[in-house]
Design a protein that fits this description.
about 230 residues; alpha+beta; Type Iii Antifreeze Protein Isoform Hplc 12; 3 helices
Length: about 230
């Protein structure tokens, strides 16, 4: 009798192992993915998932699901990896397209801003826009933009980010500047007109007063040009 019971138990275990499986319906995956995205971007963003996500079945039991967003910014069009794991073994990975519309208040150029022009409250406005995936929200904040100068010509309506601006030029083209020539312990000063814009540490050309000779040196934070010999 005991042997018979043992056989029944072994048969039952074999039957369970034979038919053990894990099943994930498309609707279940959608629900889990949406919840995972909402945890990251909040409830204000519009999340658009594929209309149909396939069902997945695995012969193994205890299979788990996870989502891989990578290092991409969670806005705009992106791909999310759906991964199925059993213990520490990845059984399968598929990627699906997702669109996330993040609406946020951003700084926008009211008009075309010329290269080198200072960004002020007069030439920018705050607008609610869909945030592209290439822009992080913190990069378009007042503290990162106001008081800086445009690196390039910025077209009207462009979202302003810290990649489009820089610290004001130490020297501006057309300004009268002091030129300091260093040769060992000898220091000679003269003056001239800057022929190009330059930040601190950048090269600047100067037309010297009097003889009109062109001098080339490095701009300093205090607006001087230093030439070392």
């Amino acid at each position: 009798m005991r042997r018979f019971c043992l056989k029944l138990i072994l048969i039952a275990l074999a039957f369970v192992q034979l038919y053990a499986q894990s099943f994930f319906s498309g609707s279940e995956i959608k629900e889990k993915l949406l919840y995972s995205i909402r945890e990251k971007v909040g409830n204000d963003a519009e999340v658009i998932l594929p209309k149909v996500i396939s069902d997945f079945t695995f012969p193994q039991d205890n299979v788990s699901i996870s989502f891989d967003f990578g290092k991409q910014t969670l806005s705009g069009n992106l791909f999310v990896g759906i991964e199925f794991w059993r213990n520490e073994n990845k059984l399968r990975r598929v990627e699906i397209p997702v669109r996330i519309k993040v609406i946020a208040e951003v700084l926008v150029a009211k008009r075309t801003i010329s290269r080198g022009e200072i960004i002020s409250e007069e030439n920018i406005s705050v607008e609610k826009r869909e945030l592209p995936s290439s822009i992080e929200l913190k990069s378009t904040s007042f503290e990162n933009i106001l008081g800086k100068t445009a690196k390039y010509s910025i077209v009207r309506g462009t979202i302003l980010t810290n990649e489009l601006v820089q610290e004001p030029f130490a020297i501006k083209r057309g300004e009268k500047v002091r030129v300091v020539v260093l040769s060992g312990k000898v220091q000679v000063s003269t003056y001239g007109v800057a022929l190009n814009d330059a930040n601190s540490g950048e090269q600047v050309r100067v037309r010297r007063e009097g003889n009109g000779n062109i001098l080339v040196g490095l701009a300093t934070k205090d607006g001087c040009v230093v030439i070392s010999k």
